[in-house]
Amino acid sequence: MIALLAMTGAILIAQSQPPSPSLGRPAGNQKQASGAQQDKPGTNQAPAISSLPQSNPSQPVPPQVVVQQNAGNENHGTSGYNVLAAILSVLTLAVLGTQVAVMLKQANIADRQNEIVETQNKIMAGQSTIMSGQLSAAQVSANAAEISADAYRQAERAYARMSHYPPGLEIDSVATRLNEGLPRRAVHIKVRVQNHGHMPAHVTSVALRYAVGTVAPSYPPTYDSADVERVAAFLVKDDSFDYSRVFDLTAAEVTNVLSIGNLMSPEPARIWVFGYVDYVNTLDGAKYRASYGRVHNPLIDAKDFGGLYIVNGVFDEGKYQARNNLPFITESGYNDDTEVNEQGQPKQGKG
Fold first, then answer.
1. pLDDT tens readout for residues 252-310
2. How far apart are CA 147 and CA 145, in angstroms?
3. Sign of the Cα pseudo-torsion (226, 340, 290, 287, in order)
4. pLDDT attached to residue 217
5. What would the pLDDT profile of 138-153 be if each residue is shown by its tens digit?
6. Of 98, 296, 303, 344, whose CB neighbour count within 10 A is largest?
7. Gap between the Cα atoms of 147 and 143, Å rounded
8. Helices 2-15 & 63-156 angle (0-180, nearest 10)
9. Angle at the Cα of 17 (from 12 to 22), degrees rounded to 5?
10. Which of 156, 188, 209 is the last residue of a domain?
11. % helix, strand, coil for the chain, step of 5
12. Are 227 and 309 in a shared domain?
């Protein structure tokens, strides 16, 4: 474009120059020149006389010659300017057309850029969705890992439990002593504390007590200091130790519990035995309390109870000695294994 403008300017400058002086010479001078050229050469007898045009400095140039030259110059300059104006108009139109084309191209580029931005936004939205899904999957994986770790801990940790030897409760047939002026009958129980888990357990205390009533004590029951015995036992898997207690019941309480009238009642009075084992799991140092709850059923102690101990028409002494007169207390809370704090209270969200 710059080269085209430069060439156009050079052409216009050349066309705008005035014509050569010979082109504007007056006709009279031409005649004088031709006349001078017609003079004949002279001889010795007749010398040649040249007729030269007389020059008068004070005589002005004929006006018509000057006017013709100026008119020619003006016409030549005007035509050059017209050509220049036409070329500039064409160039202006070309430049405007180029600018319009550039603007249209830029608009097209802007549209394409908008499409690219929209596509990028869609891609970013898709990536955000993918990232959210990945985060959700990661959270699920983390939760699964935590659940798996907790499941492993629960499966591998120590489990100390309390269980009683047969027959459960053994009640003396007669009163053996007086207490506070009342005859007393001793009730014996022997329990085993055993670690049924995989990790070792540090047993720190064992508690046992009883209550007489028609319903089980509300859970958790209260314990006196005399009901709790501090121990320090390290139990590996399947290891155990024995623990015995003797409860002192009045003869009247025992007589009432064992009476036919009480046993036939819809709500008979019973002997409730409950307790716990506190121990520390060596896998993570957590403290647990394994509770124990049983209720005495004296009908189990009757040898003729429903033919329970008759085998092939013969009384089976071995089966009778292996009897269990302490079935489970079915109320909630008894016979649980719960993580507790130092005060023996269940931790929040535990148990």
1. 999 999 999 999 999 999 999 999 999 999 989 999 999 999 999 999 999 988 788 99
2. 5
3. negative
4. 94
5. 888 788 787 877 788 8
6. 296
7. 6
8. 170
9. 145
10. 156
11. 40, 25, 35
12. yes
C-alpha angle 189-318-184 in degrees, rounded to nearest 5: 30
Interval 52-101: pLDDT, tens: 455 454 555 555 554 455 555 556 566 767 777 788 888 888 888 888 88
Q: CB–CB of 194/322 below 8 Å?
A: no
Assess if residue 21 is contained within a domain. no
Sign of CA dihedral 256, 257, 260, 263: positive
Q: What is the pLDDT of residues 316-335, one digit of tens each?
A: 999 999 999 999 999 998 99
Domain count within the chain: 2
Mark whether 255 and 331 lie in a shared domain. yes
Split at pLDDT 50, 70, 90, the class of 38 is very low
Check whether residue 180 and residue 311 sit in a common domain. Answer: yes
Residue 9 has pLDDT above 80, yes or no: no
pLDDT at 40 over 70: no
Calculate the CA 42 to chain-centre distance. 127
* pLDDT (0 to 100) of residue 5: 58
Residues 118 and 229 in one domain: no
Cα-Cα-Cα-Cα torsion 324, 330, 331, 333, nearest 10 degrees, comes to 80
Q: Which range among 11-15, 18-22, 84-88, 341-345 has the greatest average pLDDT? A: 341-345
Report the sign of the C-alpha dihedral through residues 228, 230, 235, 240, in that order: negative
Q: Which residue is associated with the tokens 């207490």? A: 179
Q: Which domain holds residue 308?
A: 160-339
Within a 13 Å sphere around the CA of 200, how many CA atoms are in the beta-carbon half?
8
55 located within any domain = no
> Tokens in use for 119?
């596509």
Residue 182 within a domain: yes
What CA–CA distance (Å, rounded) separates 40 from 48? 7
Please tell me whether residues 202 and 284 are part of one structural domain. Answer: yes
Domain boundary among 135, 156, 177: 156
- Whether residue 345 is contained in a domain is answered as no
| Cβ pair 122, 130 in contact under 8 A | no
